[in-house]
């Protein structure tokens, strides 16, 4: 897609300060140091944002949103709460809600104060109109005074942190006006520079010096270009038109050869999602031996080397190391063994196999991996017919449950409870057939009000169960790379999806 | 050279047999090379299941990204572990399919509507014309993208729509040919004979449109290959396919990782398009242009001329004027004119002609069309077509050899030799007024002021029977009649007071009453001004009316030359006798027609 | 002539109407799919339902098209389904980008191909054959392949030009030139290849006319004939060639903008069509068809003005 790189006049020169600044400290509150401020930070996102509605902002590459809006809290890489608009807070004993104390003296870009009314209006807007409305259906918002707000659900919330971190806070007046999509009003560390912005192509932001945490954001200016094609992204990186962008493994050698740094964000597990575990659509998939057999036909080691160019390692579980659900040192129960897989198929009575439709989409790296998957499934007589999805309906079709087997490079989330919610509970959208499961669902329910240790135990039980029952056929533990120039430092990682640095990580 | 010939250049060739077309194609190395490549692609596509070592999506994981020359993978392995050569082979099949869809759809739509519109005209033609406008105003590529939302990544559907978008090119081509053929004699004749419309279409019209449609198709196919690649490149193709466009797109995505991958599909796409275009050009050379001769490059021209002179029967002699040399104003000796044949040899059309014109004499040059009489007329003025080759001969004007000296020829042209053309309407530049053209012509011959030139021309126009010269000089050619145009052209020829006028069938294109007037003017001019004239005509009546002497031409030779009375009363050659006999019967027919 | 022009104008309006309707009908389809896609992964059925109604996608095709058409007449092209951005606003930033590549390319194409075509036709010989070879070669390689090759040599290997992106002319003329140079060359090669060939044919055709022979026979100098008469009469077919070049360039821009990541309207059209952002697609289609029709109309007008036959009618 588009990238009008307004500030760049085409050479390798850039407005960056020549030396990396010294403020590597991720903590806030460093004294204002003009010497530490830097010029422009130029990033690329591979998909345009859908306007400025606070209820419709992506997390993935969501730098524009992070720039213009503050949120009540910031969530860190594992969805632990950090201060933002809220200076301090108390979480309810049963995790059914939180009471936040708002920082005084903050202002929106239109000059109005940030107060409990604004927080209430924004949360109400999300509750009533956004696509996540269901998450906030039972939310009750109370504002005892201008700088206190309490948010309470009718029952304990497993993903409480995510729900209170997500809503962007804007002014009641803007919400009232209905023009939420046209331009952003927020109290964030940057302000949209409309004159330099071309929608769909490049978004320019100027630093908000009045931001409560302004010192944390060293760059005076932020430019986010929309570049859909990775080849174009790499070209722009190589010619010095970008300071940072996400690239995939095949481009790593190239950008490194051009003197850029790279950092891997291993946050994805490409996998077959075997969602029809009761055999509703494809009876064979209801047999655990069939799902296990599918797991055994992939030579994960070679896949990591050949298709992911060595930037990946084989895995049997889908949760991120460091997250609560991750089981350290889990042996792969399904090593590459086609013979064994055939035996399992025969035991299950499916020696002659069956056929499946496998949806594919362009731009998802499918063309690299799917030929191998198709070929290996044929080894146990599973015939794959690839169905290309496209257009507006693509995502809808993909998630509709029409296709009980889907290949996707699904992310793993730092907050593994949330990942369990998304991928394993009946409400989760990646649980494509939305089939309930007693073992998982009961444990998920217990997690809501459980303490950390109990929650960790429950999550690992769920992980082990999913592995044993072969709900997925995970291939490797992989992920994209962040390519960046020497002028940029990324000492921290704050994005819960772990796919790239958050705006506040750039130093 | 006339309008009919330029609008329907194919009617003559269309009747040639397929066999000779094939033979000429095979003789053209460019066509052969292209054809071999194209047939190769087709064959590879057709035989893909047997030629390819495996399915296009078979992966060789261990050899992922292997370079060209890897054992077992001559062109290497792509980043998904698939053999590149294998995919190219299967891709040939997919690309051929895509191109076939484009071609079939656009030919079926364009040719059928073009035939109907051209043959029946009327309301169908105007509706089809409007639809053509609509289709041509479609932002084609955007339409293909919009279609993607409807059909998903279905390249064949996109190609079918692209075929619809290309149909107007066939429609326009076929319609204009049919319009031309429709009025051609043989279709009229067929109608008189009572053939049904469909049989006429089948027998004559389809025959005439066949060659241009085939030629056009090779260009349409070329653009089909390009658009398939382009649409896939935009990400609208089926990612599971192995068409060349998809290969291009996927290799472009991994171009940093494995740049060589993009080379193969880019090469086959470009070469195939190139082959189609060159083949189309060769085909059109063979089917269309070969009827006309091509202009030879200088070296080939010299070589052809030398070879032709070598082959002449005897040494060319010095010109020896017949009769009294004082009296002769223009004398042609041993004139041989030829045109390059396809094999670069010279195909002679005038085989050594001698001709003398005395001062004040009107000399008729008669013969069937193609006998070479116009060639002789043109050569005296140095206005032979560019491709013509003067093999030998002399054109002596007052004892000076014009053919030997280009500057002498340029000086004499327009100044001492005037020219009256055959078709008055096409011999005036439609963009300029009569006055401007006449003035320019006169001042090119005789330097004088514009006002003087204008004055003299006005007098001349009056003398050829135009009563309001001032008004006529302000008119554009399309505003005057054919007869008046011919008077204007005669004025243009005589304004510079030349010694001799070359008139090339000056009355053929005019209707009978005007013919008589124009002949009268020519006769009077000759008498009043003592100008000699070469009158090229196929009409013996005109000769009898006007000429003093006459030469009869046949197959590039003068067979008989004599005084008019003598020739008419006592023709010596058998051919002259035939000519006289047939001309009487033609006159009879014409009389009946009137 | 006025009658002829008025007739053409009416016809153009009708064409515009029909073309936009066809594209609209092609895009018309699954309102729920669009709403779902707009709302994203987590949308509830109720939210989707509400969105369908909010976007007006639950209405029949003709009503929707009528609405769009009505809006278009009053200058309101609607808003993007996805970003809510006003279509006219999007076009006002996108169209100049495309035009700033297409217009200079058109001018260059016209100048270069007239020079090449006329020289080839008049001089013949080696020049002619060189032009022929360029033409065939230039048309054989698709413009996006040329573009890829250019990016690799001039932007990445030699770093003469930026590989991607666009700088506004008003921001920095030199940076603008650098950002459009390669896209222009990529478009130029194909355009010149075909236009030069057509100019050559037009001039050759005129040279073969009878009146040119007559002018020669009158003793008018060759240079006078070429510049005074041949070029004058080849101007009308020449104008047609130029107008065809405009269409070619507009189509080519879609590919070129993709390779060079230029934020032009071709890219907008491609992007919007792939996600069924109907108002955006319709906006770009409208602009493209308008350009085509205006160019056609102007060409027709100019040819009429050049042609005494039509002028005096």
TrEMBL record, chain B:
Keyword field contains Kinase:
no
User: Where would you say this protein principally sits, based on its record?
Assistant: membrane
Q: Which residues form the ABC transporter domain?
A: 332-580
Pfam families, sorted: ABC_tran (PF00005), BPD_transp_1 (PF00528), OppC_N (PF12911)
Q: Which residues form the ABC transmembrane type-1 domain?
A: 92-280
> Which GO biological process annotations does it have?
transmembrane transport
Q: What's the protein's topology in the membrane?
A: Multi-pass membrane protein; Peripheral membrane protein
Q: What is this protein called?
A: Dipeptide/oligopeptide/nickel ABC transporter permease/ATP-binding protein
Lineage of the species this protein comes from: Bacteria, Bacillati, Actinomycetota, Actinomycetes, Propionibacteriales
Automatic annotation (TrEMBL), chain C:
The protein's predominant localisation is: membrane
- Asked if the record carries the keyword Hydrolase, the reply is no
Family classification: Belongs to the binding-protein-dependent transport system permease family.
- One of the GO biological process terms: transmembrane transport
| Assigned GO CC terms | plasma membrane
Organism this protein belongs to: Tessaracoccus rhinocerotis
Keywords attached to this entry: Cell membrane, Membrane, Transmembrane, Transmembrane helix, Transport
> Per UniProt, what is the membrane topology?
Multi-pass membrane protein
Q: Which Pfam families match?
A: BPD_transp_1, BPD_transp_1_N
The protein depicted here goes by the name: ABC transporter permease
Concerning Gene3D superfamilies, the annotation shows:
MetI-like
Q: Which residues form the ABC transmembrane type-1 domain?
A: 95-299
Membrane spanning residue stretches: 12-29, 101-122, 134-156, 176-196, 239-261, 281-306
**Localization, UniProt:** Cell membrane
InterPro entries under this entry? BPD_transp_1_N, MetI-like, MetI-like_sf
